[in-house]
Write a structure and sequence with these properties.
By secondary structure, this protein is of the alpha/beta class. The protein has three domains: 5-79; 88-249; 264-462, Vaccinia Virus protein VP39 (Rossmann fold, 3-Layer(aba) Sandwich). Helix content is 38%, strand content 16%. Strand 10 (293-297), helix 11 (303-311) and strand 11 form a beta-alpha-beta unit.
Amino acid sequence: MAAFERDAGSFRDRSGEIYFSQGRIFRTVNRTAAAEYETLRGRCFYEQAAIAGFLIGAREIDLSLFGSCTEAVRYLIEHPRLDFISYPYEWSFSQLKAAALLHLDLQLFALNAGVVLSDASAYNVQFVGSRPIFIDLLSFRCYRDGEYWSAHEQFCEQFLNPLLLRSICGVPHNAWYRGNLNGIPGAELSRLIPIGRKFSKNVLWNVILPSRLQRAAKSKHLPATAGAMKKLPQATYRRMLATLRRYIDGLEPADKEPGDWQDYAESNTYAADEAELKKLAVLRFVRERQPECLWDLGCNTGAYAEAAIGAGARRVVGFDRDQASLDKAYRRAREHSLPFTPLYLDAANPSPAQGWNGAERKALQHRGNCDALLALAFIHHLAIGRNVPLDWVVEWITGLSPRGLIEFVPKDDPTIRKMLAFREDIFPDYSESAFENALRKRARICRVEMISSTGRKIYAYEKA
């Protein structure tokens, strides 16, 4: 009988847990949640939500597959396995906005069926390519006449407030969200919002007044919801969701200045024929390897990711730390319906294992299966820009994937000359020979291609 490994991040929901077994994903439905599950299943709600594109697919599996540890478990469900699990602190503004809109659209859809969501966790949304999808089957329950939106505060902390941080203050949400896995509290955000923006209807009702209510309740040692709540008509509940949806749909980043690298594909130091050589190297590599999942480190606006998909890569996960580039990459993925998910990554400080017991949220390298990668115009940003020893950079990259393409940019290249223009060159070990030695220690160099007159080369490597 196959062994089942419990996901360390699924302990918070007592209705059921996530398990892995032989590359498959399972969810248990505990006896305490069985009646609600049976009711919604009987209404065909899960099936209808999946057909509508809101909810991940699910099918019941014979409970005997789970083994003898079934005392508290009533049902066993299998979900499709996702290629890569991402977290809200790795999403761009556009992705967080898309996830928020999905959540609200799903709530409106559910209300039509007499169903509500019991929570508003952003971690219940994942991306399949550029498309957000809800993954928690057990967050749904039957609507109770007159109830209000009990998860409003959580929605604001995990969706709305991080969006407002960028939309009003021009500050990306990623670092703050990663430092506080529950999102951004309204009381903290309200201190940053300019006085003139606090009286906007949506900001006032969703950020300022709730945070003041929380403070007042805390000072009196009362719950924030103290006192009898009047019944909320379903039509009012629905209008509240629809109004918030329209507001979020109109949000845009306040920092509209160009990012450092978003125009790189159009304004780099390559001549036109040199850019074509780089693209051809990518196409050749992908056609030869046909990767199931390709990681693109330093994906910029996604031009090479799109080329790789056209050459046969089934899925691409891209990483970059430039916010404007990521928003452009996500727009490219949405407009062209690409199986491409661009994510925020500071490669010198990648997402760690964190949360309860350091295991609730997994480190970057422990999520998904990467069978090939691109690291184009990437390593010098770590080795020169962030002072990471070149040998360590090569070790980290080759540790992520058994094969890949790595571009080496020599010191004579205009890009590195620009990087060193206002700082001392303390990098005597940054050289082509040092790079090749570091790569050969860890993999076989399959091919080397010169792609620019300044000496840029692309190395195809493969590990034994």
